[in-house]
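ENTRY TYPE: paired fold submission
RECORD: A
CONTENT: sequence, then structure tokens
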Amino acid sequence: MKIYCMSDIHGCLAEFEYALSLIEDHLDDDDTMLILLGDYIHGGDDNYAVLDKVMQLQRDYGSDKVMALMGNHEDFVLMGESSIDCMVRTFSDDDEHDEEDEEEYLRWMESLPLYYTEGNTIFVHAGIDEDAGDMWEWSTGDETFVGKYPADIGSIDGLDMKIVAGHIGTAEISGDPRFHDIYYDGESHYYIDGSTVDSGVVPVLLVDTDEDKYYRVTESGAWPILPYYEEV
């Protein structure tokens, strides 16, 4: 299976559509998926438009072909801590959307899975309980799947799998405020949150689960990803 991955779009529709343009010719392929790792809202100005785009992709291709995972910002909305359009809920929030429209978005958010596995890879918004080794599915709480902090790097004892996650900007993980690309630690983790609101970029990762290979997708093609310390 070839799986394209994006994360942390945060209401940035134009950047999301550009990233989609890099892969749209491949979505009709039988052995291809798109996985979106959460945080579709809060940050840019197009929160509803991004949700509409993701939901339309799922209607066009099916939710098993275009999979959307839960992020902590969707969880904030479901918990009543924020609205779709604003991180801090106010009485004036969502005036432009009637109650029926809101219910459709909320039902969709409630249906989002917390993680997905294919081959040797775990796809998740934030992370897993790595101390649990191969028992991670039973040990990891919902708050860890969507909100784990800080990011783990290095190999995972007792678990021979890779993790693809977003949630924390790769500028923070790398310690380089100018780095907004895919971060690979050389062991078990690929992080793909490019801080889109600041960088204007939604990084695109391609995972070939049959070959256990990982690529950066650009206008000029797909390129093998090296560990961060070899790329800088």
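RECORD: B
CONTENT: sequence, then structure tokens
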Amino acid sequence: MQNPLIVDLGTGFLKYGYPKQSTPKIMPSSLPSHGAHKGDSYLVNLDATRIGKFYPMENGNLPDSEVLKPLILDVFDRMAIGGFQRVATELQLLVFSTVDQNRIYDVCDELRELLGCRKLLAAYQQVLTLLFLGKHTGTVVDIGHTVSMITPIYQGFLLREHVVDTVTGSLYVTAALRRLFEEKAQTSSSYSDYAKIATDTKAIEYIKQNYCQVRPNPKDKKVPREWQYRRKDLNVSLGDVPWKAPEVLFDPTLIGIGDVGLIDAVVDSIEQTDMTIRRELSNDIVLTGGGSLFLGLRERFEYELKRRLPHLPVNVYALEDALTNAWSGAAALHRPPENR
């Protein structure tokens, strides 16, 4: 494909652009919701940008072509791709690893007809992530907004039967933060201040992005820093909340969710594979996705996995461009070698 439009359907954000660009444009997915969130009350309306929105990849599966059509047309509008240009456009979508290949072919054929573009291909995000790193074998841990995928890849081939998914995504850290501040509001003399934070979506998101860190060693319960959250109407101590909230990634039951944590999911995935390739899969474990950006996460993964897989070599890598590396991997494949 020559200079295709590359679209990465994520669980939190959609990334799009041309290979010649160094980074993609990013926007939240923007289809009208087909129904309100259900389940744990702490997960309802946690992210203001998601109210009235529908994220195509929220459940880790590729939706119908009719559902995708308005979203891709929105991308065309943002890229100023008109009618005649659309006919000549080559489109490449990145999709999650659990999507059956036959289903991908069907959706791509239908979507190409609906959009009126010349060619449409799909690629697996996790394989592109490894290729971007110059690797062909390893385990990709894609920590998304609402779902995380653990994908073993051997010599460039995705081992579909050993993919493990869990609904443990970064949204649960948001949920844990809200619950922890609600608990503080009930037990602290600064009741009104903590109650304000617990009901303020922007404050919760700011604290998650700027303060939350993962304990490299879960046995270390000390609070290394005494953070203060300050704004015009508030000045409160965060205590150990920024350290406690990310623990939900390893134990979702902390907020009443019955799915497996990330470490259990990785161990399950690797131990399901043939014994002859497990060493290679554990030797290159790559953390990616927006939920992998917490400081200390890589160190915690190595600590936990070395404890759980003592018979295997464990090396964990965290990507600085974790939000966009799959898109960048696809873009790099379409650039001239001298420009990669």
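NOTES ON RECORD B: The longest strand covers residues 148-154. The chain has three domains: 5-128+323-339, 138-168+260-318, 171-249.
STATUS: closed
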